[in-house]
Design a protein that fits this description.
By secondary structure, the chain is α/β, with parallel strands linked by helices. Helix content is 45%, strand content 20%. Strands 2-1-5-4-3 form a five-stranded antiparallel sheet. A hairpin with a 3-residue loop joins strand 13 and strand 14. Helix 19 runs antiparallel to helix 20, helix 20 packs across helix 22 and helix 21 packs across helix 22. It comes from Niallia alba. This is Sigma 54-interacting transcriptional regulator. Keywords: ATP-binding, Coiled coil, Nucleotide-binding, Transcription, Transcription regulation.
């Protein structure tokens, strides 16, 4: 009974007959379709219902027959008749009745599906990229016409094969399909084909209504030429970096090392001593004291002098790019990275405190193990690089704030070198100033010289920017001042004011006022045509200005 009830839900009429055509069973839809002919057909011959029935012939010959019948003036049905295997002693005839409306519905959707298939086939053929469709088990179901062009393999060698076999035959590597099946998400990989082409492959999972993986679609773009161009571009950049590094080293070879203070003599002796060993070095000191300069001096005096000196300013690189800059990358283009570039030489990491904590771990691991993943080829590469770092910050405080790892700090702090500020070695200021003047006279084809008066200001000025500020100040004087002799009058008002303030620490109030007043008056006279103009700028009478000039010992003749 249960089976018969189930048959009542079928969307077609079903009639069972014996070997002489007597109706043994009909389902609900068969009754509805025949009741206008005979209300109850069970027990009567099928020919009384379907006058053109061939069921007896089907039973006798074991054939199947398709025909049609009119149900009424407006409706018709398609009749499909066949025989079933014997059940007991008698064979059974089976008749299916399909209402013409169902046939039209099926025909419409079949045509629509056919049209969609044609559209899909057209899209697949027009798309320049390789498209592959696999089932949930990784069996390739379909590929488009780009298969042979991109993969160098015919379509028949793809379809029906499991992805593991494709990898085994080295047709592809690094399967995106396997990752999509394993991870259930979109993935992007770079593949190398049997023909040597490089493909950027994006894999997409297709899920059914139950959330189960049903298919995997891969879209592969040939990036061989693009990757080759990017690789060549990167090689050119790396070569340029090597040339810059070599030029940088050569330029420092010619730099004059000026040591005129006991404090710097002690520091320089330490640099020469540490140069002989191959330990990490940590330069500390204020900004502008010359940490990079002395790092290069250390390199030139070490056994690695023939190798590269590669500088990475961690403070000037976006945080998300630091890892690639140091360790390299092997994505859509290959970059070897600063560590590999510095092989057999020195890696100088400026502003070390800017290195993110997660990369501090990676950096320490690489240099302790002396190996890392090769960014260019598969496998590992042995690292032979000396690390020199510099910082202006209090690393001990950063450790307390968990911004700098203690293990990296102790590894770096084996050879700490403190570079004193210019204020701590002020006796070197005149010598450094003369050195920079000589350098910039040569660069800008000038013949400037210092008046001794300028050195009093240089010695009194605090130089918070240290050697770099002194260097920039002298370059500015050489470039902007037309006079051959550079005097204190050519210095900026801000610089004079700071120098006077510092000098005032050892002066009385009266002396400080007179010194300041003298500089103000001299500056006004320097920038005026006449004393009358200068007095107007100062807001005093010309006679008052004359008295002050005499009192302060200002030599107007030298100023004109």
């Amino acid at each position: 009974m249960m089976e018969q009830k189930i048959l009542d839900y079928f969307p077609l009429g079903i009639i069972l007959t014996n070997d002489i055509g007597t109706v043994l069973y009909r389902n609900e839809l068969a009754w509805k379709m025949t009741k206008k002919v005979i209300d109850n057909i069970i027990g009567i011959n099928i020919l009384d219902v379907i006058t053109n029935s061939s069921i007896n012939k089907c039973i006798k010959n074991g054939q199947s027959v398709i025909s049609s019948m009119k149900l009424n003036d407006t409706d018709a049905a398609i009749i499909y008749e066949t025989s079933l295997p014997r059940m007991g002693d008698s064979p059974i005839g089976l008749t299916f009745m399909l209402h013409e409306s169902l046939i039209e519905h099926l025909a419409f959707h079949t045509k629509r599906i056919g049209g969609l298939k044609q559209e899909f086939d057209l899209i697949m053929s027009l798309v320049g990229e390789l498209i592959t469709i696999s089932d949930a088990n990784g069996i390739i179901m379909r590929v488009n016409e780009a298969c042979e062009r991109i993969m160098g393999v015919k379509e028949r060698e793809f379809v029906g094969k499991p992805i593991e076999q494709m990898e085994k035959e080295k047709i592809i590597d690094n399967s995106s399909t396997k990752r999509v099946i394993k991870e259930g998400r979109n993935v992007t990989v770079v593949q190398t084909t049997k023909s040597g082409k490089r493909l950027l492959v994006k894999g997409y999972p297709i899920f059914n209504e139950k959330g189960e993986l049903e298919k995997v679609i891969n879209i592969s773009k040939d990036i061989t030429e693009t990757e080759e161009l990017l690789t060549k571009l990167n090689e050119t950049k790396e070569l340029l970096k090597e040339y810059q590094t070599e030029l940088h080293s050569k330029s420092h070879e010619k730099d004059e090392v000026i040591i005129k203070s006991p404090l710097m003599k002690k520091t320089y002796d330490l640099i020469e001593w540490i140069a002989e060993v191959d330990s990490p070095v940590l330069f500390r000191g204020e900004s502008g004291v010359g940490k990079e300069f002395f790092a290069n001096i250390l390199h030139q005096k070490s056994s690695r002098r023939g190798g590269p000196f590669v500088k990475v300013n961690l403070g000037s690189i976006p945080e998300e790019m630091i890892e690639t800059e140091l360790f390299g990358s092997r994505g859509s283009f290959i970059k070897s990275g600063a560590i590999v570039t510095a092989q057999n030489g020195v890696l100088f990491l400026d502003e070390m405190e800017k290195l993110p904590v997660h990369l501090q771990v990676k950096l320490l691991q690489v240099f302790q193990e002396k190996k890392m993943n090769n960014p260019v080829n598969e496998g590992e590469i042995l690292i032979n690089v000396r690390v020199i770092c510099s910082t202006t910050q209090d690393l001990e405080k950063l450790m307390e704030e968990n911004l700098f790892r203690s293990d990296l700090y102790y590894w770096l702090n084996v050879a700490p070198i403190y570079i004193p500020s210019l204020r701590e070695r002020s006796e070197e200021i005149p010598f450094l100033a003369h050195h920079f003047l000589t350098v910039f006279n040569e660069i800008y084809n000038r013949n400037k010289r210092f008046n001794q008066s300028i050195f009093q200001i240089f010695m009194e000025y605090p130089w918070t920017g240290n050697v770099r500020e002194l260097q920039n100040t002298i370059e500015r004087l050489v470039v902007t001042i037309s006079a051959e002799e550079l005097t204190e009058k050519h210095l900026s008002y801000t610089m004079l004011k700071k120098a006077i303030r510092k000098n005032g620490e050892n002066q009385s109030l009266k002396e400080m006022v007179e010194t300041f007043e003298k500089h103000i008056i001299e500056e006004a006279i320097e920038n005026s045509r006449t004393l009358k103009d200068a007095s107007i700028k100062l807001g005093i009478d010309a006679s008052t200005l004359s008295r002050k000039i005499k009192k302060l010992g200002i030599d107007i003749a030298k100023m004109q």
